[in-house]
Amino acid sequence: MPADLSPIDKAKFVAAKRAVEYVESGMKLGLGTGSTAAWMVRCLAERIREEGLKVKGVPTSSRTAELARSLGVPVVSLDDAKWLDLTIDGADEIDSQLNLIKGGGAALLQEKIVATASDQMIVIADAAKEVAQLGAFPLPVEVIPFGWQTTKALIEETLVSLDVLNRDCTLRMNGDAPLVTDEANYIVDLHLKRIGNPRQLSLVLNQIPGVVENGLFIDICDIVVVGHGDGRVTVRDINSGEVEEDHIDLVPSDNIFSDSDD
Ligand SMILES: O=C(CO)[C@H](O)[C@H](O)COP(=O)(O)O
């Protein structure tokens, strides 16, 4: 095991490990994307190896599909699975209502489809992702490449009509070229600083022609598991209102490092 696991990776690991305790044999699972979700895939793979857990996973990106396959997590398409028991994913920001900003890893479209097709969504995160108000993290909006500059102008006009003060919108780049998502689209990042009414903004953005989906996840997440670098985890359930404090052994087994991601 690498001795130099950073506090942030420890926090992500313990959140992932605690969330994977919700998985039961026979479940169909949505597998999120990002560095925290990668820990979840590793923890899940460990339970499959050690306990013979039988699950099917629907990955939310080509990256997650590759990681899951490499670790022996059975992968199926959403069309094969049709409906899922549970999705576990990361997030870029989480507010007190468990509304989220997602898409920092450019996978928001598949992530939202998969999470919405699940009985339950658990978000795993380090404590830095918890915010009083969404919006400091730029809001990703997935747009089709055709006419993207017009779509971006329409997004900006919409922000003016909503009296949004900070409305700088930038096309996400991958080096010198636009970043292309798994669904062959582009991402426009909205630098809003604060989002006063996330529900309204999400609805309005999705009405703009050329916008495929936005990174606001409203009323989708059920449980948030927040990890800390010392092994503490806080589990918050929006439906029951329960908050539980827990502690997870901080030592990932050697096997968990058999692959790397993100
Ligand atoms: O939404 C996502 C990918 O589209 C990720 O879940 C989000 O960006 C968090 O990533 P990380 O766990 O690496 O901080």
CATH C-level category of the largest domain: Alpha Beta
Ions and ligands: ribulose-5-phosphate
Looking at the structure, the CATH topology of the largest domain is Rossmann fold
What is the percent of helical residues?
25-40%
Shape: globular
The parts where pLDDT drops under 50 for at least 5 residues are none
Pathway: Carbohydrate degradation; pentose phosphate pathway; D-ribose 5-phosphate from D-ribulose 5-phosphate (non-oxidative stage): step 1/1
Pfam families: Rib_5-P_isom_A (PF06026)
Catalytic activity: aldehydo-D-ribose 5-phosphate = D-ribulose 5-phosphate
GO molecular function, one term: ribose-5-phosphate isomerase activity
Q: Would you write up a description of this structure?
A:
The protein has 262 residues and is α/β, with parallel strands linked by helices. It folds into two domains: 163 residues, Rossmann fold (3-Layer(aba) Sandwich); 72 residues, 2-Layer Sandwich (Alpha-Beta Plaits), CATH 3.30.70. It contains seven helices and 16 strands. The site of ribulose-5-phosphate has 19 residues, from helix 2 and helix 5.
